[in-house]
Amino acid sequence: MTDFAPKPTPHHRTDIWSLTHTERAALAADLAGLTSEQWTTPSLCTGLTVREVLAHITAGASLTPVRWLTGVIRCRFDFDKQVAMRLAEQLGATPAETLAGFRGIVTSTTKPPLPVMALLGETIVHGEDIRRPLGIRRDYPIEVLTLVAEYYRRSDMVVLAKGRIRDLRLVATDGPFTTGSGALVAGPTLALIMAMTGRTGYWNELEGDGVATLRARGKVT
Fold this sequence. Notes:
Layout: H1 13-31, H2 36-39, H3 50-60, H4 65-74, H5 79-91, H6 95-103, H7 116-134, H8 142-153, E1 168-172, E2 178-179, E3 183-187, H9 189-196, H10 211-216
Parallel strand pairs: 1-3
Antiparallel strand pairs: 1-2
Helix pairs in contact: 1-7, 3-5, 3-6, 3-7, 7-8, 8-9
């Protein structure tokens, strides 16, 4: 059996920001050579292109708690409406402007009233929402993926994850992550993260009696 002895992992706020900045920079680099047609590719987020998802990430990294609350009030507590409004603000007139806007927040530490880990998770999950349909693969450090998986197993904030995996046992086949009890869902840590957050397209990387249950609990929209 492969030994997945845990390695030292960052846990301070500044460490998580550093990891987030690294992942943002990697995503910007991966998208630098996209064609106009590729920018219109449907993402794993229903109804959004890869360009729109990138603008959404930029929006999340541009909102202070005050701006977030102002938007919530302006949108009459319709959170989906605020997401759409903020995305439109960051989209730009062209894909080049969208990418330039994202590059501008690579090292940002601005965030809405969410844990820093949520920003790291969003960068990886939305990064995959973009990369997977484009056929781009990133070799994420397993320590980083494990941190994100540990965050999502405990959280339903913004994205339903904890509730989605209730009564299931998740086991990573490429790292130390494991959680829960019940029917088994096993696979690469990244595939577990994406399944926890409701993404499709990763089911063929998972195995176990619990996969059908997890799949039946719905996808992200």
